[in-house]
Amino acid sequence: MQYWRLYLLTLVLGIGGSFQYGMQVSIMSSPAEHIQSFVNQTWLGRYEVPVDDSTNMLIWSFIVSVFSLGGWVGAIHSGSLPVTYGRKKALLFNNIVALVAALLMIFSLMAKSFEMILLGRFLYGYNVGMGLSVHLMYLGESSPKKLRGFLTLTSSIFIGLGKVMGQIVGIKEVMGTDDMWPWLMALGGLPAIIQFVTLLFFPEAPRYLYIDKGDTEGSKKALQWLWQEDDLKMEMDDMEKERESMQGQKSKTVWDVLTSRCVRWQVLALVIPCACVQFCGINAIYFYAFDIFRESGVAEDNMHYLSIGIGATELISISLCSLLIDRAGRKMLMGYGYLLMGVIMSILVVMLSIKDLFSWFPYVNIALIFSVICVYGLGPSGVSMALPADLFLQAWRPSAYVISGSVNWLGLFLIGMFFPYIVDALGQFCFLVFVAYCMFSSAFMLCFIPETKGKCMVEIMEDFNKLNYKNRETDTEKADFVLETTF
């Protein structure tokens, strides 16, 4: 219980950070027909003619996809606001954005304006895009290295919890009704209020105070308060190594991160297995799950409850990953996780192709779906959140998170836009695209990326330098290895 205040900070950051992402992703499936009906009624009131089906579907699609656009903008700003104003103030501002979005949702029905829903969804996306990145930065910079993997992985746990909560409150017995959908859409304001009020009682991230602001005393007090520990010599020495290296250099931009040789392999490790996790096929699994459930005789009214079961399975497996990550390591969990996902999805392609041969084949497919979700939670889902916190030092971290967030949101947008067309064209063979990605990511992690478990930031950088400067004993660009963020 020595770190109980740090665990409490983890809870506060999760509620207003990654929990929002999970809830906003899953909550939209329930009010779809109610919102489309509202759009039709609003259109009829304005123009005295009902909206045609294609226009209604276009508006609904934009309501769904504008969330990704907002997330991308929020991810871009996560590279500047937390550096200029601090991690804590950036999150406080971010909560205000979520509250404005919630108010827009509540009053949209009264104002008879679906445009308010569009703006609210954009602001929710901004809130999530900013919150995800700053959540990980704040937590990683407040954690001891022995707990860094476990605590940063909790962001995936909160995403899974948010998905389950969004599915539960969206069922018709709770808030998934015609008169309750504005309040359902405004539910994201509640976690924002909780985080805004509670975060005021916590200090700024200690590493930000020490390295970026040069506030040695403030950083020490923050560490003592969070860790309940007086002997902080090792942590202070570790931060001092970062601050002493080439002070006064300008902060690194996104272009610097993309073009500098000294972080080349870190960027590859950030983008290929982590930021591109959307391409592992988990969305395809969720899409095909309902078809397989129908073939197994599951009634339509029970589909929402099964989706809760799928979300709960993912949440449980991610929770198990949090217990394994600092024992098995990031490399093993993610590398073999992608490998197993590729193997199971290959089997699923075969089983879907011959599903009519025997009546019990659909039940095998159900088992395969739950297996993929379990492996995804145990490996790629959790590690993709924890690993980026290990890869970059202070000067590079904000811009690195901008890249990660941009790729992640772009991937989500592309999957949402083009996946239905891929399914129409390839059917169950669409999984082969995701199998190829999983196999490539597995080989990349296992063959090239060094383990980061239990290492300080400088040690991790030394391991990556063996890749960045392979076959080169000296390189002048090593001198460009900035560890302090200044403007």
Description:
It is a single chain. Helix content is 75%, strand content 0%. By secondary structure, it is mostly helical. The two termini are 38 Å apart. It is globular, with a radius of gyration of 23 Å. The protein has 23 helices and no strands. Helix 2 runs parallel beside helix 8, helix 6 runs antiparallel to helix 7 and helix 7 crosses helix 21 (397-426).
Short summary:
This protein has helices at residues 4-16, 18-26, 32-47, 53-77, 81-85, 87-111, 114-140, 145-169, 181-185, 189-199, 206-212, 216-227, 233-244, 254-259, 264-274, 282-295, 303-328, 330-353, 361-386, 388-391, 397-426, 431-448, 457-468. It is an all-alpha fold and 487 residues long. The relative contact order is 0.14.
